[in-house]
Amino acid sequence: MLRRLAAAALLLTLPLAAAAEEPAPGALHHKDWFAVTFKDMREDLETAAGEGKRLAIIVEQHGCIYCRKLHEEVLSDPEVADYIKANFVVVQLNMFGDEEITDLDGEAMTEREAVRRWAVSFTPTVIFLPETVAEDDVTVAEVEVERMPGAFGKWTTLDMFRWVRLKGYEGDEHFQKFHARHIEELRAAGRL
């Protein structure tokens, strides 16, 4: 009888434990190291540069199974999280959100309008910006240096953040070559 009560108590706590990992209804999955800002992209870019970091904008939506995968399987990995936190300021936007953001050109709009303006059609999507933007009349979409649409595994995601940090987009080695070379190095080191 005591065993049955203990088993029943355990079963009752399992849904609570699982629910604790879910965001509130209508909310996005979120990491505590994501930046909390006024979502003024020029200010966010300047803040990131002032910290010696790059700005990454992650667009997600409530109920997105791929966003969940990214958060639970990739961004929760200490190696990935530590690298991103050390090198990037991450601003999260809701694909269908109504919060006001200000694009680099100073135009204010809702998150959903910005996402349309930047031609984001899939979640999650990570948009990487350059270190600085000299022009005042450009949009995020006009100056982004790279875009990662979708939830990829640990090594692809981490390599994309590394490649952007190293300004691989300015060189001759395409991301796919950079990533393939790194995977071979991981295999040779016995990490894969």
From TrEMBL:
Signal peptide: 1-20
Domain of life: Bacteria
Domain Thioredoxin-like fold: 48-134
Keyword Signal: yes
Protein name: Thioredoxin family protein
UniProt entry keywords in alphabetical sequence: Signal
Pfam family, one: Thioredoxin_2
CDD domains: SoxW (cd02951)
Signal among keywords: yes
InterPro entries, per database record: SoxW, Thioredoxin-like_fold, Thioredoxin-like_sf
